[in-house]
Fold this sequence. Notes:
Blueprint: E1 4-11, E2 14-21, E3 24-28, E4 30-32, H1 45-50, E5 56-59, H2 60-65, H3 69-73, H4 78-81, E6 88-91, H5 94-99, E7 104-106, E8 111-114, E9 121-124, H6 126-136, E10 140-142, H7 154-175, E11 182-187, H8 193-206, E12 210-213, H9 222-232, E13 242-244, H10 250-257, E14 263-265, H11 268-273, E15 277-280, E16 283-286, H12 306-309, H13 313-321, H14 325-351, H15 355-366
Parallel strand pairs: 4-14, 5-6, 6-10, 10-11, 11-12, 12-13, 13-14
Antiparallel strand pairs: 1-2, 2-3, 7-8, 8-9, 15-16
Helix pairs in contact: 6-7, 7-8, 8-9, 10-15, 13-14
Amino acid sequence: MSISFHLMKEDGDARLGKIKTKRGEIDTPAFMPVGTLATVKGLTNEQIINTSSQIILCNTYHLCIRPGVERIHRVGGLHKFMNCNLPILTDSGGFQVMSLSKNTKIIEDGVYFNSHVDGKKIFLSPEISIDIQKKLNSDIVMVFDECPKYSKNKKLIQKSTDLSLRWACRSKKEFGTNNDKFLFGIVQGGIFNDLRIDNLKKLLDISFDGYAIGGLAVGESQLEMFKTLDCLKNYLPKNKPHYLMGTGTPGDILGAVMRGIDMFDCVLPTRSGRTGLAYTWNGKINLRNAKYANDDSVLDENVNCPASRNYSKNYLNHLVNTNEILASTLLTWHNIAFYQDLMSKIRYNISIKNFDNFYKKNFKILNN
């Protein structure tokens, strides 16, 4: 087999591991920059690699609309299409069932979307989503699920979770056997511990190469998210990677690693970079603020990235407030580099069994 996951060390519930794909290895805990439309907005692949990123995420629904699956499939998949040598994980489109809910209709077979671009009707089912991801030729494939909005209505969440489980079975059947790709199941159940545990146990019976936790970072508090992870951490299989979808802030990541999570993705470092926000080891800063016009210090000398070390806050404040394109590029580059520096330090501290001290030192500062 060309794929594997190896758990190398544990420090409490924090885990140090390695995911092997046919396109390269991924050290975990890992952060995946989001490249929804086959690009991490504002950066070249060379810049992404410069940040020490080892994997990126692309999105089935959005690529299905633009540029269209066949156009990517014709050249052999995403890696050739976007000239990317890194492993790629594709989200199945399940999150868009929630985020674009005004334009969707859910039935047992799948979901009808009215395209957010031109209103064209699109249908995604477990089978269609898996087929698209095969044509995109990603390295990690996600089952198609319904990602419900945050709700305290248990019956509503139960109904959604049951549907996602049936779709997970169909996704597994459509995926078949492939020794070159991972297929991850997605645990749903909202903030209800019994629903989460029951759903996970049923997904374990189906058997997947990895297990993602979906339906979080959708409106619940950080405490609710952490409580959900606490309820699952002793049930997730040790020999499979654990992926928390769509999360989060540096504080979210620290708290989730403490609860056994191995993989993360989030739009925050890229989206924040485009709005003038930077994540640093001293906390998040807003470069639009007038006080930075008199600050000639670099963005963060502790992050090994040209954007972090070679440009002053004074200059970045000017770029941001004049809406220069370079501002988005530099801040996005820095933010992803910061996230990867965070992951590197997390891995190091797990390796020397010092993660608890590292967490206590940094959580309050980074959780702003």
